[in-house]
Amino acid sequence: MQALDEFTPRLIGSVSTGRIRKNSDIDLHVFVDEIEILETKLDKLGWAYTEDSITINKNGKMVSYTHIYIDMQFPVELSVYPRRELRVRSRSSTDGKPILRVSSSALLQLILDEHGEAWSQHIKQE
Fold first, then answer.
1. Which is more confident, 107 or 53?
2. Residue-wise DSSP of 67-82
3. Which of 33-47, 50-64, 112-126 is the least confident region?
4. How far is the C-alpha of 77 from the C-alpha of 105, rounded, in Å?
5. What's the angle, vertex CA 12, arms to CA 11 and CA 16, rounded to 5?
6. 31: pLDDT strictly greater than 90
7. How far is CA 4 from the centre of its chain?
8. Percentage of the chain exceeding pLDDT 70
9. Which of 1, 75, 78, 90 could be cross-linked to 25 through a Cys-Cys bond (beta carbons 3.0 to 4.6 Å apart)?
């Protein structure tokens, strides 16, 4: 997430709620008005990815969003939204409740609170 901070990433889905399954991917919402800026960043990072356009029904209107699938040790899916939608909290397609979105700084704090010593060891190894 830190590598994508300029796109204000928000962790969502099973990883954010702790209900991780064997085939869970890491789902992030990212916010950028020009997709090319994000693509350039991903290319600079050397991350292999594919893109798809997903159309959803949003308040009775069909709206298309870009999804980017990053091939890593654990698969990552980026749902790309315009910056103006940063403050808009989507609802879950499974239960209709607002989606829990975790910022990069909130995730780091959670890691430090729950696994501070292990995190310190991880950072020392890098």
1. 53
2. EEEE-SSS-EEEEEE-
3. 112-126
4. 19
5. 80
6. yes
7. 9
8. 98
9. 75
